[in-house]
Design a protein that fits this description.
single chain, mainly beta, Lipocalin, 8 strands, about 0% helix
């Protein structure tokens, strides 16, 4: 079965940054959703470069996924640095 391109980004990401220690990316109703540790959710909108975090077009924050290996992104990058994909239970 072919994997959706966005399913490569689904998972739990962690970093050593105390302001952004972790988040999860899930697919809900065909859209990528970023879930923060406190429970807040933002849709990931695919603009021209990376994904915009949130539906408001004035939001400047972007998220990029890279290092795709065996169909999974190994890391995400944003303005605070790299966040690494951890293979943990849902």
């Amino acid at each position: 079965m072919a994997r959706s391109p966005t399913s490569s980004y689904v998972g739990h990401y962690r970093s050593y940054n105390p302001w952004e220690s972790n988040f999860r990316v899930v697919i809900r109703d065909g859209s990528l959703i970023l879930i923060w540790p406190q429970g807040a959710e933002d849709e990931l909108i695919p603009p021209y470069n990376g994904f915009r975090v949130g539906a408001d077009p004035r939001i400047p924050e972007r998220l990029w996924f890279d290092t795709i290996l065996k169909g999974r992104a190994l890391q995400a990058r944003d303005s605070l640095g790299s966040i690494y994909h951890r293979f943990s239970p849902p």
